[in-house]
Amino acid sequence: MKIQDEAIIQSLLDIDFYKFTMGQLIFKKHKDVPVRFKLTNRTSSVSLSKMIPLEQLKEQLDHVRTLRFNNSELHYLRGTNEYQERMFQEDYLQFLKNMQVPQYQLEYNGDDLILELLGSWSETTYWETICLSIINELYYRNLMLQKSRLAQDAIFATGVKNLLDKVKVLRKCPGLTFTDFGTRRRFSRPWQKYVVEMMMAELPQQLKGTSNTKLAMDLGLMPTGTAAHEMDMGYSGIYHSSDEEIYGSHKRFLHDWREMYGWGLSIDLTDTYGSNFFFKEFTHEEAVFDKGLRQDSGEPIEFGLKALEFYIKEGINPKEKMLIFSDGLWAEKMIDIYRYFHKDIMTTFGWGTDLTNDLCLKPLSLVIKLVEANGHGTVKLSDNLSKAIGRPEDVERFKRIFGYKNNFSETCKY
Amino acid sequence: MKIQDEAIIQSLLDIDFYKFTMGQLIFKKHKDVPVRFKLTNRTSSVSLSKMIPLEQLKEQLDHVRTLRFNNSELHYLRGTNEYQERMFQEDYLQFLKNMQVPQYQLEYNGDDLILELLGSWSETTYWETICLSIINELYYRNLMLQKSRLAQDAIFATGVKNLLDKVKVLRKCPGLTFTDFGTRRRFSRPWQKYVVEMMMAELPQQLKGTSNTKLAMDLGLMPTGTAAHEMDMGYSGIYHSSDEEIYGSHKRFLHDWREMYGWGLSIDLTDTYGSNFFFKEFTHEEAVFDKGLRQDSGEPIEFGLKALEFYIKEGINPKEKMLIFSDGLWAEKMIDIYRYFHKDIMTTFGWGTDLTNDLCLKPLSLVIKLVEANGHGTVKLSDNLSKAIGRPEDVERFKRIFGYKNNFSETCKY
Asked: Fewest CB atoms less than 10 Å from the CB: which of A169, A193, A267, B1?
């Protein structure tokens, strides 16, 4: 088998850990809700359909459908106790044991690669990071094949040197901690593994874990992740009978989440409908209970100040709370944010693209988002309108429902 | 077996090809002349004895004494016809078949590593590049072991990027040709192989061969090399009864050489006693007969002009002659020399240290030179007095005998 044909996803555990934390809630509460996920390529300069032969992509996706969780993988999940004793319950694990990811719908249309995943939420959700990892790696494999062996080696060489530079920069700021969030944007599976292994060796006190469950298992690292926009979005489709119910769906999700995972996973993602809405609805009791907040769009410092202000106003000691930043980070930016806040509130970082795809090839900005749940179009607004997801009419409706007034729009670094 | 213990020399063919061209002449004419070779470390900032454990070095040297030329290696030499039909005669090949390199003498004295090779010239000569390759690779292995895996990878990454830079520079000058002369200074055996393979792939019209016989065999490249200072130096010890005989020993060697290899290997090394002496004695007939000249010290442009002037004065068309430059070259320097001369005379380049040891670790400048032959101290003056070899009193005597007046002295780049 040639390298370009080697299976990219070799284990169903090779996905972000939050797929399981979300997956259990979905399985328990909304197993059969029909959903649709869809790929968006934000890097419009790249034609995925021209770079990745249809047959190659099908072969990789079909291979994933032959995979099942094996015994050791289920043992690993069953034994997970980092957030809560035996957080994954037996009925969920038995469900996983027999699960196969559902059919995908793939079509090439001019420059576009149209990929949709339809099925029950409880099974379809697992496709997200799998598809992103596959498309990324196929894209880079094909790009590399256009180059000479020396040019390929020089690309890896750049990656190694960039990685060493990151280590040198972060070593100067030993209080800063981070987690690998780079599965979805990785240059390749082996490269993600290499990067994480090097970070383990070079910055053992600063690397706190990886979102990649298989890597965490293989390297003995902490598997990390809580919930994604997908949950708010799914809930908005399920609780959709009126504007009020949609408005309330955010709180319903957070309620179900806290009920299932308690304090252990109580890091709230704040930007699905904009952080202004989030803080408006965030109660004193919730803020006291929760571990902290995740910032995934907009201005991180601005967000951090907003959070600090909230905690102080509520008489909550921010030093006991944690902010997780996960939007388009790089070493120097993390240090700026860390230095700005570390005396006032705990911070940590979910480091994605720049960690696992900083060779000298431009990273792709691909997302796979839940665009429909329970027959309704879903919406993500975020604190950066260029990251908004949803049909225009739905976006307008949700902006109205959630009182969204932000006009900040910025092309992401990635 | 750990990498640091792996045998560096795995074949007696892993030496410079000129050891065989010289070796056959030595075998035929001066088989039993007693000689002494000695290591000199010109990189005084590095203590070899501190960097390389005695036992490690002994293990590698002892391993070489277990090696014999195998059948395929002898076939390869027997089949060599690039310079002359069946240039290696059967009696010489039979001699090689049974040959073992003689004992070495190794002593650690403070910062110094004292390595001497004593024995008959016909057997001892093979140690030269072997010892240099071994000491280099052990030095870098030990240096690398002090570094983290990422730092090691970053060193290789620098090597890859430097190599790509060389390719880009040389591609702009497609008429320039070169040969790998880097066996003795290589970072490691695998690295030399990598570099040569990349050059084959990237600059197939410009890479003309390698001095490493094993690499040439393995990669199907042209094995290259003619004669070294060792020949003049050895002959000076054999023909030593008077100043006149010493003076004449240079011509005796060239006579024997031309007799054995004819036009095929008639590239004269010009600087053993300084190029002024060489040109003073170089006759019209010799210049007509010979392919060309090799420059290995001093100023290359100055030397080239001297050679051009000589050919023109003798009414010989310089366009039919070749200058080989082999002293401390790098890509831009080769291009300068090539552009200066290529319309008037053929040029090519023997590229050593900068080709096979340009990572981001300082290259060592080690030489192993014939310091005694037939009981007499030998001398190399060269066109750069800082490269002179010999006991001070012998150097003074040889300067007088050969009318050496050059005072140019320059620390080599390598």
From this structure: B1
